[in-house]
Amino acid sequence: MRRFFYFKIMNLSPEQVSKYISRFIDILVDYSPKLISAFLILFVGLYAIRLINRIIRKVMIQRNLDPTLTKFLSDILLWALRILLFVTFISKLGIETSSFVAILGAMGLAVGLSLQGSLSNFAGGMLIIVFKPFKVGDTIEAQGVVATVLEIQIFVTKMLTANNQTVFVPNGSLSNGNIINYSMQGERRADLTFAISYDSDIKKAKEILLDVLNKNPKVLKKPAPEVFVKNLSASSIDFAVRPWAKNANYGAVFSETLENCKIALDEAGIAIQPYTIQK
After folding, report:
1. 168 near 246, Cβ under 8 Å?
2. SS3 for 90-105, per residue?
């Protein structure tokens, strides 16, 4: 095939070569205005899109919108404007756009059917961003995971557990399930149970436990810590010990209360029975 075209070109006469060159130049001259205007629209459009995107981002930041929502909306606007510019560009070149738009619609339908799970996660991400059941930096419990939110992405939420493991939870299941936000109120109560024997003095034990809470500087005074008899079981008297703490101090208050109450009860000669800690 190559040899055929080679001999065909070599057999052209000078008049035929001149005729083809002249025809090519005529076509180029006739088409050059469309070509120039199309690329002019392309370059100006790309610059305008960057400028518009920058302005929109700035306006949303000034309005104190959520950073995740700001990035998400600006990205959608960016790609929508790029698609519109591309359609305008090929239309200016003289390419029929109706068939192109039909192809895009068919592709969109096929992608939508094949990515139903991803679309569910996308919708879940939108719900989380709009209704804000939690934000970046909050400690939440959801889908069997207790962790701190690092990033709310379009399809998944990135979280970090207390033992430094990164967890990605799909937004679809996250938005449709129960979410416990430990950080939203700023303060948190630790619920502990101490069981003592029936031979012990109830009033004395209560005073000791309450004194331990009042001496801990991390325990909040308001709301006031509580100590009361929770249950009279078959083998023990169960005390509920409930100190309040700031979210940042919750772990320390929880562990220090366990340790200090055990030491104080031992020093007073009050025997501790087996008990269950309720978090």
Report:
1. no
2. HHHCCCCCHHHHHHHH
Token readout for 75 is: 């990205």
H or E segment to which residue 27 belongs:
helix 14-62
Neighbours of 220 (CB within 10 A): 19
Q: Rounded distance, CA 117 to CA 155, Å? A: 10
Compute the distance between CA of residue 192 and CA of residue 187 in angstroms, rounded to an integer.
Answer: 16
Reduced to 3 states (helix: H, G, I; strand: E, B; else coil), residue 30 is: helix
Cα–Cα distance measured from residue 7 to residue 40, given in angstroms and rounded to the nearest whole number: 41
Alpha-carbon distance 81 to 55, whole Å? 14
Read off the amino acid at residue 177: G
* Tens of each residue's pLDDT in the chain, 279 residues: 454 444 455 555 666 666 666 676 666 666 677 777 878 888 888 888 888 888 888 887 777 776 766 777 777 788 788 888 887 877 777 766 666 666 666 666 555 544 455 677 878 888 887 788 998 889 999 988 999 999 888 788 999 998 999 999 999 888 888 999 998 888 999 999 999 989 889 999 999 999 999 999 999 999 999 999 999 988 899 999 999 999 889 989 999 999 999 999 999 999 888 754 444
Distances (CA, A) of 186 to 131, 138, 181, 223, 245: 19, 10, 10, 12, 9
Cβ atoms 62, 54 nearer than 8 A: no
